Recover the amino acids of this structure.
């Protein structure tokens, strides 16, 4: 069963604008971790941000913030003030309650337009 | 420099010829994992290891083997590769299995099986 769903295969955003990348997840466990990774065209996977299922506040890391809506099981990534270097594939991922298994979404390809 | 290394980075092989992709981390991480990335499917977990001599299957283990004899190394073995194992493979490690422990990824190994 699909654990992580990313419904936006591709997104475009104007430079300096904000953009939201959607992610919904599926689990009945109370404990889990949610992650976002960036994969530029060079191929490496870069960790961006983490949100724990028990965290009361939304995570923020510089220009990245995670809009965590637990009841709706969504963990959207918000990138503020987009830069050309933000053009990449973005993956949402969930670590299960055991801490052993990771589930990734299919990714969203973001293109920043000058 | 803290890193996860994989070798080889690129490999073209023929059906049935056994191969090993090595993975090594220098961060004294307990947890290590292997993924394959295919277009439109995101990353899927093949195997993971919680510590030395402790490994378990992920979502897509068929056709793969792993071992964890030392903490730093986690090789992926394809005993009889087939064309459907053509993919981009990533090794990753994290400090432990805690929810907030993000994974550090290797640079990837692009495997083609003809």
């Amino acid at each position: 069963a699909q654990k992580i769903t990313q419904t936006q295969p591709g997104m475009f955003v104007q430079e300096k604008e904000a953009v939201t990348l959607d992610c919904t997840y599926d689990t009945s466990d109370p404990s889990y971790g949610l992650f976002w990774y960036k994969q530029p065209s060079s191929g490496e996977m870069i960790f961006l941000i983490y949100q724990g299922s028990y965290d009361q506040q939304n995570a923020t890391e510089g220009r990245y913030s995670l809009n965590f809506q637990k009841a709706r099981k969504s963990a959207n990534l918000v990138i503020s003030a987009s830069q050309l270097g933000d053009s990449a594939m973005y993956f949402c991922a969930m670590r299960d309650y055991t801490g052993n298994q990771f589930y990734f979404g299919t990714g969203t390809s973001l293109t920043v337009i000058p | 420099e803290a890193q996860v290394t994989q070798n080889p980075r690129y490999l073209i092989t023929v059906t049935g010829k056994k191969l090993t992709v090595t993975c090594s981390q220098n961060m004294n991480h307990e947890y290590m994992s292997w993924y394959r990335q295919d277009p439109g499917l995101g990353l899927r977990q093949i195997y993971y290891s919680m510590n030395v001599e402790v490994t378990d299957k992920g979502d897509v283990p068929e056709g793969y083997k792993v071992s964890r004899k030392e903490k730093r190394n986690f090789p992926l073995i394809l005993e009889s590769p087939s064309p459907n194992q053509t993919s981009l493979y990533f090794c990753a490690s994290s400090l432990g299995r805690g929810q907030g422990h993000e994974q550090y990824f290797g640079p990837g190994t692009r495997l083609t099986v003809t």
About this structure: The longest strand of chain A covers residues 88-95. Chain A has no helices and twelve strands. The mean pLDDT of chain A is 95.
